[in-house]
Amino acid sequence: MNGHEDTKITRSGGPPDVVVRFGQDRAAPGVVRRALARLFDGEDDPIAHDALLSASELVSNVVLHTDGGGEVRAWDPKPDVPMRMEVEDSDQSIPEPLPSPNPGHSGGRGLMLLDRLSDAWGVFTTAVGKVVWAEFDRDRRRNRASRVGRSPR
Fold first, then answer.
1. Does the pTM of the predicted model rise above 0.85?
2. Phi-psi category of 108—alpha, beta or left, where left has phi over 0 and alpha has psi -120 to 50?
3. Helices (H), 4-133
4. Contact, 50 vs 118, CB < 8 A?
């Protein structure tokens, strides 16, 4: 079930497969996407598009709405454990998805997209900021696609 969850989920053991630190740079979302792309099995990977778009949105939020940069960490223990991504920044305020973003305003859609694109997501605070995390489950998406008779993304 998708949704905002306030509890920290235990990630798979070991260090992240990808770590990217970024500053207040509008190029940061592209840098992060390129670093994460190596985790996916090309365009046929059922989570690639959604995970990369989510990463772009979360990193853009950090760049636009905080005073410092942040860090992206990702674990991808393939094949049967969801890929987990965390985006950490130095702002402790907890973001909430807007119920209905203003059509005339370019912002307010990042968490709404995350809710639609991820299989689970949440936020937790740290001593110096917060972490927004998301999980993307290949098996769930492959099973769902096979039941409806179409290829997963």
1. no
2. left
3. 28-37, 48-65, 110-117
4. yes
